[in-house]
Amino acid sequence: MAGTLLATAPAQAAEAAAKCPDRWICLYEHQDGRGGSISFPEGSPGSDDLSKVPCPTCEGGGTFANRLSSFINNTSQTWWAFYETHGRGERHNMNPTGNRVLNLLLSDEDKVSSIYSWR
Ligand SMILES: [Ca+2]
């Protein structure tokens, strides 16, 4: 019995790490929905400057600036992620994913500084 519990615990933990409420977008510090996270509800404008958004669950605390590595977009809207604050710099679309986590390419990790819902 103990062996069965040990074998199933990691799978349950992984599943729990990659859940985002309906109509929210969840941004994760690490790949596969791991690490610290912040989230925005559908209809929120997003953030001009993620260096003003605290991330107490992130490694070392601080803010969510230049942390994004994966996301779940459980809203019905496309969101835009920008490398620089105030919607400047390279832009990446974040299309709805349902409740599935999408990893950024390694070359795009830890660069996002602002995020907006499409409007
Ligand atoms: Ca990261």
Could you walk me through the main structural features you see in this protein, from its secondary elements to its overall organization?
With 119 residues, the protein is α+β, with helices and mostly antiparallel strands. It has a single domain (20-117), classed as Gamma-B Crystallin, domain 1 (Sandwich). It is 13% helix and 25% strand. The chain contains one helix and eight strands. The strands form two sheets. A four-stranded antiparallel beta sheet has the order 2-1-4-7, with no helix packed on it. Strands 3-8-5-6 form a four-stranded antiparallel beta sheet, with no helix packed on it. A hairpin with an 8-residue loop joins strand 1 and strand 2 (37-41). The chain is globular and about 30 Å long. Mean pLDDT is 89; it is low at 4-16. The protein binds calcium ion. It comes from Allokutzneria multivorans. It holds the Pfam family Inhibitor_I36. This is Peptidase inhibitor family I36.
Kindly list the characteristics that best describe this protein.
Gamma-B Crystallin, domain 1; 1 helix; 4-stranded antiparallel sheet; 119 residues; 25% strand; Peptidase inhibitor family I36; alpha+beta
Give a short synopsis of this structure.
The chain has 119 residues and is an alpha+beta fold. The chain has one helix spanning 2-17, and strands at 24-28, 37-41, 46-47, 70-73, 79-82, 91-94, 102-103, 114-117. The protein has one domain (20-117): Crystallins (Gamma-B Crystallin, domain 1, Sandwich), CATH 2.60.20.
